[in-house]
Amino acid sequence: MTTTEADQLTPEATADPAAEHAPVAGTDHDHGVHGYHKQKDEHLKRLRRIEGQIRGLQRMVDEDVYCIDILTQVSASTKALQSFALQLLEEHLRHCVADAATKGGDEIEAKVEEATKAIARMMRT
């Protein structure tokens, strides 16, 4: 977690971080399996490609490439990260939120609130 992310946490969010991610008996979460688990290798490959784009940006600055060309690559990198985030969010909804929905009660409310906050953070960027 970065300093910026820590600054954005509310007192409720920092009260018991372990409780927020505590496994629920009888689910994949007991075994550390998350919604993105089945596509983990694809996600890692995609993130490495994005990492390469960022290294390319560093090279462009080092080589004094024209500003607009660098900005074009910044935009492409940003869109790649946003696309990755949307796919991860979709997998979270299909797996974690859907699992909570089958259980009902407070868990579904918590997962929907968690997803809503994640969407709000994504929209701020």
Tell me briefly what this model is.
This protein has helices at 3-8, 11-15, 17-20, 40-62, 67-103, 105-124.
Keyphrases for this structure?
125 residues; 6 helices; mainly alpha; elongated; disordered N terminus
Question: Approximately how much helix is present in the residues?
Answer: over 70%
Instruction: Kindly report how far apart the N and C termini lie.
Output: 17 Å
Poorly predicted runs: 1-27
Count of helical stretches: 6
Shape: elongated
Report Rg.
18 Å
**Main β-sheet, in a few words?**
none
* Mean pLDDT across residues: 79
Secondary structure category? mainly alpha
Listing every helix as H and every strand as E from the N terminus to the C terminus, the arrangement reads HHHHHH
Work out the strand percent.
Answer: under 5%
Number of strands: 0
